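User: My collaborator and I are trying to settle a disagreement about how two of our proteins should look. Neither of us wants to argue from intuition anymore, so we agreed to look at predicted structures for both before our next call. Could you fold the first one, then the second, and keep them clearly separated?

Assistant: That sounds like a sensible way to settle it. I'll keep them separate. The first protein:
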Amino acid sequence: SIEQQQQQQSSNKEDQQQPERPKEEIITDAAYTTSLHWTNSSSEEGAIIPKRPIALPSDVEHISEVEWADEAPAATHQPRGGHNNNNTSSTTAAAGQQQPPRCSAVTNLAKAARPRFVRPERCFCEPDLTLQLQTCVDTSCALFACQEECGTNCAAGPLCGNKRIQRRQWKKLSVFDAGLKGRGLMVQEPCKKYDFIVEYVGVAVKRQYLDALFRRYKTERMLYIMALDGDVYIDARHRGGIARYINHSCEPNCAVHRWKVRGVS
């Protein structure tokens, strides 16, 4: 009919007026749910668009262990633009020389001292030496049930599966662009429920200095402070591990657990 032809002509005209979408924009396009969760959006060809990688922040030094008092290099606490003992600038270095560590907001005075290691009691799990299967991997192990890792006195020896933090058995992870949430952390390998993802590490801070730290970070949009126990907190703002990029969520797919390793939380 004439009406249908007019509608078709109008539709064709609108299609012609719309500019062609650049290919790069399709690749980097992202969609977010109402809860700000990342969701992969599909391109016009139906292919899934991967999450976008993103550069790590320049004001963060990544560490692999909790940093306690008197463990950081002296240069860590020098202000940017200051001078070290050799009267050379701490912000510049000649080619091939390593840059000094970045300044941390936590002074050595505010850092908590490393607790004394205590050997845990034996769990008395009996390994199956015939099948060579891992033991101490569920709540049938007394220490696992109390969220404490086994020590060197575990009868299972190398078959003990309750030393994930000591052995740093992290999942393969990558940081990606999470849009409104900044950066996010993504697991790059298959995992199942109750799998251990990564340890949250940073600078150990005494509770008495916590208020001063919050005042210093009052203009920050995001906080990276996690309670370790009643007297010690972990601050990963300037010095922390990759777990600092995990975001809070109203629909979480992982949870935080506190474990003891050799008697230390």
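The second protein, kept apart from the first:
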Amino acid sequence: RPPVSATTLLIVVGVGACGDAPSLASHSRCSSTMSDRTRLTQIPISGRVVDWKGAYGWIEPQCRIEHPDITNHQGHIFAHSEDVIPKWKNLTVGSLVEFHLYYDGQGLGAEDTVARKVLRLTIPWETAQQVFGEAGEQIPNFERRFQVSMRAYQWVLIDGSPGGLPFILFEIWGSPRSIVPAVVEITSDGEKCIAQMLVPESRLWKIDLQALRYRCPGTELSHDATLTDPLRCHSLSFEGGREECSKALHALVAQICE
């Protein structure tokens, strides 16, 4: 199940008036004051938390950054819980995050850091090719447009030949304000939306069907698991107008995404 690679974003940042910047400090470094900082990004970038100890840690950016200090600390970006949304929230090693990049005279840091959420859905092959192209060549443009990261999974047989299933599994990563419009765009035809979402079996207990149906009456949850690989999932379908499905998807994110 080869994943579709996410968009690569190139950030070119000059030192400007800062002159020769010192290296990132050791683990004793504290969060800098806002007045010391220069924000270097206009839109959030993404990364993965690779280390977290107490109130601070390090993020590995998932894009290429050109800055004199990027080679410090193995290319990782300093993060402090004071700069996480909500404030003082500890981040989990391995989690995906979005953040703005800043420079404070000590090195590069992350601010307005938000843990990314994920929604999973199945899409018929025909629909996927219409939206993303025969070989998925339009996925990078879609990611940039909605500021999300996507992974696509195709089932194959042991010998590597196609599994023959009529759909493809997509994971869409990002903030709720990004992933919900992305899902609605993929699953809508005009004003009508039909979204076949997947809910991991381990999170079924969090589902409040009454709350979802209040927002989108055409909501159905399968009794049995519809997928067992790469993880056991039940199907949760939304059928209605774009606005109805959007409201239900926002509620779903709040229910099952930590």
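Some points you might bring to the call about the second protein. Helices lie at 125-132, 139-146, 176-187, 209-215, 242-256. Residues 1 and 154 are 5 Å apart (CA to CA).
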